[in-house]
């Protein structure tokens, strides 16, 4: 047969009697300070694999010993379903037990859940047998949260509340393990998580007679990272200058909870939800700014961004200069075949690309240096075009230059 150990405690009775109750434990059972040897119990494993968020092996839960509990209100609790060995002796106080003569021993009994009475002759000792472990529940605050692919994602400041209840001997303590770490008593303010990423909380409770609740596991992702928003412009643009037909769009990304909304305002006006691209043609010409930011589905808010820009719908200015003898009469400019023509364009906002021109309906050319008009006497037609960097176009027809190859009569 296996050797068996017992654990005991004392209860003061009338007439200075002392009752000793003993639980039978398996051979080799551990003991802990303040209790005698008893049946050792560990919390059952959590439903899912209890590993840390980093993948390292999780710390093991501590063991607990079955024992008796004398509550402050005088109620005496014993473990249910555990063999109890009883003895009675006479003494002068609760701290003194006289064994031998006058003492009696009884065989062990197993008490059922609930109130019981142990009787020694005329002495009756009421006890409550407790074989039910505590029940621990976890809840999280009403902060926004989402489920994504079966994973619970909590916002930046979650409040996790762990509460335990026990209908008989009461909850002795609740232990928690954060991300595979050692089990520790539940902090007064609840478990706290500060870093973004995946986390695992393991927890269980034990009552005053050593009944241990099966371990529970709560896995979630803490999302403290705000979305990021990008601005895109299609159509004519040169740096921060945009032209007619340009369109602005905003897109936001969030890797965890997902984007909830983008808010924006124009020129410091009322904030509004982003629903469609912004047509720059709807704005007046000149300087403007747009401020925008995104929030995700657990209320992480992006730091507002600002983009300042200029709406430019004004075409460049074109200037033509004649170099050489020139005479104007009745709106016609007379020049010699040796005269040259220079062209220039100016745009104060977007800047210009090279001026293009054609002579007498000929092929269009990019202006690079002064040029001569054809040597044929008569009026020559110039078509000039200048375009700025955002597509604003200026076109000019010049029909008043007359090349005069005829010398005067003397």
Descriptive account of the structure:
The strands form 9 sheets. A 6-stranded mixed beta sheet has the order 13-14-19-18-16-17, with no helix packed on it. A 6-stranded mixed beta sheet has the order 21-22-28-27-24-25, with no helix packed on it. It has a 6-stranded mixed beta sheet with strand order 30-31-37-36-33-34, with no helix packed on it. It contains no helices and 37 strands. The protein is mainly β and 410 residues long. It is rod-shaped and about 165 Å long. The protein has strands at 5-12, 17-25, 40-41, 64-65, 69-70, 76-79, 83-90, 104-105, 109-110, 114-120, 123-130, 135-140, 145-148, 151-154, 160-165, 171-178, 184-185, 197-207, 216-222, 228-234, 237-238, 241-242, 247-253, 259-266, 272-273, 278-279, 286-296, 305-311, 317-323, 326-329, 332-335, 340-346, 356-359, 365-366, 371-372, 378-387, 393-403.
Fill in the keyword field for this structure:
disordered N terminus; 49% strand; six-stranded mixed β-sheet; rod-shaped; 37 strands; 410 residues; mainly beta
> Which radius of gyration do the C-alpha atoms yield?
46 Å
Mass-distribution shape: rod-shaped
Strand order of the largest sheet: 13-14-19-18-16-17
Percent in strands = over 45%
Strand count, sense and barrel status of the largest sheet are: 6 strands, mixed
Average of per-residue pLDDT values: 84
Going by helix content, strand content and strand pairing, the class is mainly beta
For the record, give the distance between the C-alpha atoms at the N and C termini, rounded to a whole number. Answer: 152 Å
Contiguous uncertain segments of 5+ residues: 1-38, 91-105
By DSSP, the count of extended strands is 37
Proportion in helices = under 10%
SS field, number of helical segments? 0
């Amino acid at each position: 047969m296996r050797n068996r150990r017992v654990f005991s405690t004392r209860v003061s009775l009338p007439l200075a009697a002392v009752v000793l109750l003993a639980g039978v434990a398996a051979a080799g059972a551990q003991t802990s300070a303040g209790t005698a040897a008893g049946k050792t119990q560990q919390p059952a494993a959590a439903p899912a694999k209890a590993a840390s968020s980093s993948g390292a092996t999780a710390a093991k839960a501590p063991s607990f010993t079955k024992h008796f509990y004398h509550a402050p209100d005088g109620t005496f609790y014993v473990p249910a379903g555990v063999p109890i060995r009883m003895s009675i002796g006479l003494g002068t106080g609760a701290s003194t037990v006289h064994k031998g003569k006058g003492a009696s021993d009884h065989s062990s009994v197993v008490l059922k859940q609930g109130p019981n009475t142990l009787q020694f002759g005329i002495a009756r000792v009421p006890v409550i047998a407790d074989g039910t472990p505590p029940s621990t529940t976890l809840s999280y605050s009403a902060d926004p949260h989402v489920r994504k692919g079966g994973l619970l994602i909590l916002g930046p400041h979650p409040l996790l509340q762990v509460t335990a209840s026990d209908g008989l001997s009461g909850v002795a303590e609740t232990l928690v393990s954060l991300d595979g770490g050692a089990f520790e008593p539940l902090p007064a303010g609840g478990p706290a998580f500060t870093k973004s990423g995946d986390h695992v909380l393991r927890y269980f409770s034990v009552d005053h007679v050593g009944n241990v609740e099966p371990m529970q596991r709560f896995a979630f992702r803490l999302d403290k990272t705000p979305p990021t928003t990008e601005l895109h412009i299609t159509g004519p643009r040169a740096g921060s200058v945009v032209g007619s037909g340009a369109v602005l769009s905003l897109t936001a990304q969030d890797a965890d909870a997902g984007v909830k909304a983008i808010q924006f305002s124009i020129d410091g006006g009322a904030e509004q939800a982003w629903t469609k691209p912004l047509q720059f043609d709807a704005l007046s010409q000149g300087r403007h700014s747009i401020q925008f930011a995104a929030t995700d589905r657990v209320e992480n808010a992006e730091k507002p961004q600002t983009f300042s820009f200029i709406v430019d719908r004004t075409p460049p200015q074109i200037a033509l200069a004649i170099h050489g003898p020139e005479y104007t009469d009745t709106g016609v400019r007379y020049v010699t075949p040796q005269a040259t023509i220079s062209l220039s364009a100016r745009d104060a906002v977007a800047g210009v690309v090279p001026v293009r021109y054609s002579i007498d309906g000929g092929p269009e050319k990019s202006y690079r240096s002064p040029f001569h008009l054809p040597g044929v006497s008569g009026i020559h037609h110039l078509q000039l075009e200048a375009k700025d960097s955002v597509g604003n176009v200026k076109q000019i027809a010049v029909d008043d230059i007359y090349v005069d190859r005829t010398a005067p009569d003397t």
